Amino acid sequence: MATARVGVTRLVHYHHDYRRVFWGDIFPMKEGDINLVAPRQNVFIGWHRHQHQDDSIFVISGVLRVRVFETTPAIDGVEWILANIKGQLPILIPRNRWHGYEALTDDTMVLQFNGPGKWDGSDEERLEVAEMPWDRQ
Predict the structure, then answer these.
(1) Taking the domains of the chain in order of start, what are their residue ranges?
(2) Is the pTM of this model over 0.70?
(3) Which helix (H) or strand (E) holds 93?
(4) Element at 78 (helix H, strand E)
(5) Which residue numbers in the chain have pLDDT < 50?
């Protein structure tokens, strides 16, 4: 009787810290990345923007608060409260928009698509929370 061989050919990018648990590029695709994120409840995941990619965010479970702005939240900011609701569509965060989010419940899971290219960090800019406080309205 022959024994079947099982091998691992590809590992996802895994990262965890005080902000989140992250599984990156979970499906092999030529264009873009699909990531699974479990953000920690009430912990802000910082301001950043991309020059060449768009982000789409879909809430699988829980509740997520997302803020997006072009120059400052007080002037041109938008806030969404997203929950896992039947028929919900993902939100699109266009390139060049500052964005950040926080989980409002401890069971929040987010599916995120970045594209059109693979994320490598080279097009990402970041702002410190002190530069633009999360709770600023």
Answers:
(1) 13-118
(2) yes
(3) strand 91-93
(4) strand 78-83
(5) 137
* DSSP type of residue 3: P
At 4 the pLDDT is 66
Q: Which amino acid is present at 62? A: G
Q: Which two tokens stand for residue 48?
A: 């950043």
Quote the pLDDT of residue 122. Answer: 87
Describe the strand order of the beta sheet including 54-61 as a list of residue ranges: 13-16, 20-24, 33-39, 109-115, 54-61, 91-93
Q: Name the amino acid, one letter, at 21.
A: V
Tokens of 84: 């896992």
**32 Cβ contact partners less than 8 Å away, ≥ 6 residues apart:** 53, 113, 114, 115, 116, 117, 118
13-118 CATH fold:
Jelly Rolls (2.60.120)
Cα first-last separation, the chain: 68
- The per-residue DSSP string of 26-65 comes to -S--SS-EEEEEEEPBT--EEEEEESS-EEEEEEEESEEE
